[in-house]
Structures are given as C-alpha cells and as structure tokens.
Amino acid sequence: MEGQSSIIISDSGPMINLAHVEKLYLIAEISPELNVLIPQEILDELKDSKTRMQADELIKSGKMSVLPKNIDKYFDRILPIATQMAYVDFGRSQSTWNPKQHYPEIYVILLAKELDAAFVLLDEDRAIREARRQGLKHLRHDAVLDLACENKLIRPEEVRECLKKLMTERHVRYKKRDLLIKYGVVD
Fold this sequence. Notes:
Largest sheet: 5 strands, parallel
Shape: globular
Distance between the termini: 29 Å
Number of helices: 10
CATH architecture: 3-Layer(aba) Sandwich
Low-confidence stretches: none
Structural class: alpha/beta
CATH topology: Rossmann fold
Order of helices and strands: EHHEHHEHHEHEHHH
Number of domains: 1
CATH class: Alpha Beta
Helix content: 40-55%
C-alpha cells in the first residue's frame, strides 16, 4: 500500500462495522507496514463491548496504538468544519442538525493531515468528502475487507457474508455497488 507514511488513523464507524463481523483485526493486517493509531477520544466512543473487546486486543498485542486525549487543542479548527458539514451540506437547517456529532471524525481527519497519515479510516460520507478536501486518502470498512481478501487474509465468501451481515443487521447501505457485485451480494 502506498501513501505518505506508514500511519493509518481510524474513526469509530469503520471499527464498529468491522467488529460487528469479527474482522476488526484486519485493519492491522491489511498491510504489515501500517501503524494503526486511534485517538483516545475515538476509543472512548466504542461503547459496544464486542467492539471495545476487539480494539483492546489489538492494543494489547501492539497492533494498534492509542493517541492521548488532545481534541481541545483542535477545537478552533474543528468548529468551522463541523458547522459547515452540519448546516450547509444537503441544505439542513440549524434546528435539525448538531455540529458536535462531527467533532470526533473531523478530529481524526485533522490528526491524519497533521501526522501525514497514509490513510484515514472513515465510513461517514460527509467526513469522507472532508478528508478528500483536505487531500487525504481514505478507506471505508468495505475497502478493508476487499484489501484483506486481495491479500488472501480472508476468502471471498467471508467478504460476501460480512457485507450481507452488515446490510441486514446494522442496516449499512452501500452507494457504490462494485464490491457488492464483485463478491456476489447483488447481481
């Protein structure tokens, strides 16, 4: 995998989705040279015991490192981006959208930019658009599954079952159907 550095920083969404299908370990396995980092604030978001347990295993094994809490340092940079994402994108009004919900993912994006990360793991469309705007490469949870399959870490049947499970149990919707077609989830 090419990139500016060997760092990959993850938001909680991809971790939650991968943990739901017992594949969180893949973020550390898709490329041996990657150093997986997660901010403490993101780790704190992992309330589901299944996700937290898998994350703790990666941390204990040294395959993922936790960055100390530091979101306050970035607040002045987070707020305008969060406000733009919340109120401008898709024409939502101030009364129906809360910019605070975007703080963690924007923090991850700003950290990735600052650390010159090779990739940032994001699942939320608005955050992905912001990462692209910031010049960052991103991966979604489905791309992690696909890369793992290409690297022969999991079989195509496993990818198909993971995608199906995420669609039915977590109600994940995939706008791009290429991986769904590739793995026989849809025609």
